[in-house]
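[agent] plan:
  1. take the single chain provided in the ticket
  2. run structure prediction with default settings
  3. attach structure tokens to the ticket
  4. add a short note for the reviewer (M.T.)
[agent] executing step 1
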Amino acid sequence: MADWDADSPRLRQNLIEVLRDARDRAVRRDVPTVEDARRWQRDTMAGLTAPDEKHVGRFRGEAGLETTHVWVGSHEGVAPESVDSELAAFERTLQRVVAALDARYPRGQALDRDGLAAVIDLCAWTHAEWIRIHPFANGNGRTARIWANALLMRYGLPPVVRLRPRPDGGYGRAGAAAMEGDWRPTAVVFRRMLGEPLTS
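[agent] step 2 finished; step 3 output follows
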């Protein structure tokens, strides 16, 4: 089996299937939950060699992962004992903002300029918060990018955030800012990806 992080045909196929599932749920306007992300991570790892099988589809802090810490550069993800409460707060905020956007922009209705800005900001916040929390032992970046693409597709936009290889164009610096709780650099990167002017 291919390594979980190697650019293998199996990983590429898994990502295609996961993004297709995310698209289908987004188009139906299913309520987004952290369980979606758990499924995405598990399905992305299917048929690949993970560093430790107990990490697949499980959040840090859960049974067997109570002491699993992760680092991104010099920044530590949320402590394992806080992952559950951080994910609950993440889900509440995400669902509240999605409900407000869904009410203002029913399925099939085009976004106006304000709506486009709000969706990009939501995608950036969701991605950055997932990166900051770093709930999985492995695969958080890919999962964050799936979140962003799922939300873009929910509102009729293309999935422009490349899953593999990791995007460039300031994406890495935006991730470092996300680890410090600042999602705004991610919004700048996503606006660029969508071809939106930075002043919008």
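[agent] step 4 note for reviewer: The chain has one domain: 2-194.
[agent] ticket updated
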